[in-house]
Design goal:
alpha+beta
Length: about 180
């Protein structure tokens, strides 16, 4: 092999140039500067990720606390509206009138206030007397034979049912006329 001015080989057989440079033809100072910039960028990104994680954790904790407060005080409005009913019952029981009619009238007013409060909060009464039996809102407790009403008609309501905003809370307990099987 002859050595010319163009090609000089080092001891490993690679071509060597007169002024030595680093990887990809860059000077070591440039590479060090880029490395420092990249490390600074990575540190900034790590910091941003940690802040975002902390913010998400804080938001999750706030939402959990808000949910607990909401559940804890969900019935506050309803119970506040029930307080006058409590007051009316206590005043009625405290009165020593000896008059059964006045006591009955007070109980009717209290029941009326309870019904009004229930309706204002989406409560609907299920009282199906003389209506066709409906298994979705009623539960037949017994069957009554020999009535003049059509088969499957509710002839007695033992306990009223209630629906809250379209969802059955309690079915009405009823007696139903028997189907004619003669």
């Amino acid at each position: 092999m002859t050595e010319t001015g163009k090609d000089k080989l080092d001891e490993t057989g690679r071509a060597a140039s007169d002024n030595e440079t680093g990887a990809a033809g860059m000077a070591p100072e440039t590479l060090a500067k880029q490395l420092t910039e990249a490390e600074t960028t990575i540190a900034g990104l790590r910091e941003a990720i940690l802040r975002e994680r902390a913010e998400l954790d804080n938001q999750r904790k706030r939402m959990q606390r808000d949910l607990e407060q909401t559940l804890k005080y969900a019935n506050e409005k309803l119970l506040r509206e029930l307080l006058p009913v409590y007051d009316g019952m206590e005043h009625g029981l405290a009165a020593d009138t000896g008059n059964a009619e006045a006591l009955r009238e007070g109980m009717q007013l209290t029941l009326k206030a309870l019904h009004k409060l229930g309706e204002a909060n989406g409560l609907t009464e299920v009282n199906p007397l003389d209506e066709a039996f409906n298994s979705e809102t009623q539960q037949a407790m017994n069957i009554v034979p020999g009535t003049k009403k059509p088969p499957g008609t509710v002839v007695a309501v033992m306990q009223k049912g209630y629906v809250l905003n379209g969802r059955l809370l309690r079915p009405a307990l009823v007696s139903v006329t028997a189907n004619d099987t003669d």
